[in-house]
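Incident log, entry 3
Record: Secreted protein (288 residues)
Problem: checksum mismatch between cached and fresh output.
Input:
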Amino acid sequence: MKPAPCLAHWLLLASALPMAGCAKPADTPQRTITNEQGCAMRHHDGPQDPFKTPPPLMDTCLGPYTLRIPANYFGDQMGPNFDGSFGLYLEYPTLEPFAPGERSHLSLDVATRTVNIGYSYLDRMDTHEYLRRQHTPDPGEEENPEERLDDRIQGEPAYGLTPYYADLPKFMQYYREKGYRESAPVMQAEHHEDWYVKRNEKGEIETLIKCTSREVTQSGVAYVEGKLVRSKEDALPVCKHFFIIPELKLVVDIRYVRFALPDWKRIEDRARIAVHQFMLEQPVTAGK
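Fresh output:
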């Protein structure tokens, strides 16, 4: 089976979001770097200040596309990772950026209300095939009911999605037959996920969201003074949200608390718009 995500790991790897028109280019020394797809970006050398206001504009590459993004959109609010990879980190429920410097000493509450948006450019794989692999068994896992839509419990539409709930008795029986003990993590509801899908007019899955099983009833969050924070409940259910932008050959992987699932469409639209918002030159044509 695919390993369950480590919640603390992805929650504590999170960044933010103001308007490009309010920001200035970073004033540290810079040089131009070109990647293998021909994307040219300015690389800023030297230390960056995450508290700088307005936040400086930082270049990054997404395949052949150059994006220029205010620094506080990034995880450390200073810029993309050393290898050029990046994510956008927005505050839920506003889906606006965190204030400059707010993530420099990341608290659990800030991490809890973070929507972490990751982008990948696929130059050697069809985007639809990538998404298909997220809801079909890996080699050697073909008999695992957890990895197949047909072995899940299809529910009534919810939030504009079709749910395929975890059939926990079936899943756990499978693991018992594999020799797992009753104390193993796979025998606990919080280890399993419900799947939610949206299909296009051809019946193809174009959005896939995997969330902690509905059998985990705690939300793990609360509102305090208008801000979403970590509650005192033990569990913190989360979601992994996948969708594709075929015309740009992009796949998008978003992480957030399950409490935000009703807003999945608004989150997906924000992630899609952000790519075009920060892209320096819009592509005239793009393969699929």
